[in-house]
Amino acid sequence: AQTVTQSQPEMSVQEAETVTLSCTYDTSENNYYLFWYKQPPSRQMILVIRQEAYKQQNATENRFSVNFQKAAKSFSLKISDSQLGDTAMYFCAFDINSGYALNFGKGTSLLVTP
Amino acid sequence: GAGVSQSPSNKVTEKGKDVELRCDPISGHTALYWYRQSLGQGLEFLIYFQGNSAPDKSGLPSDRFSAERTGGSVSTLTIQRTQQEDSAVYLCASSLGDNDGYTFGSGTRLTVV
Q: How many A×B Cβ pairs under 8 Å?
């Protein structure tokens, strides 16, 4: 079975600073997909970034980037120049292939303060 | 539609009653998923529909829970004889089934009193 662990239940960062959210996973698969989702108070889950395991290059989307360490089974999310609108729950998720549902971690609550 | 639509957005029900939660996925999305999010918890997988294949029901917590998807589109999650521990946000998502990630609805907050 695949497991996803987010070891930081809560984090806080000041506006304009950089913060890194950690995620580790456990799998025996070699090819898979990793995601970070954001859930603001509105409850709407929003896809932030996606990483394919067979690609060594770390994915980047504007202020969001990942540090993907396949051997260590680590997939951390870095948010640069944090904004108040980044305040949300962030979930790491794992997908081995089509035909299976995403497996989510328990989430990290991020608070961005002025 | 433009996004995944869930109704109702909030539902309060008495213990022992049956409830139906509806999900209208993005047109053309062949895959549909139901998750449950309890307070302070992550997303718990419930059930997954892919095209005309038999659904993956492995996440349903008890036989009080069932779901169907009619015509490969709208899905209904039914909880019979609701219990207080069923109180949670129920999230629906749809996708093209191609590992590009899901589009989620805003969820239904179910409160059993």
A: 52
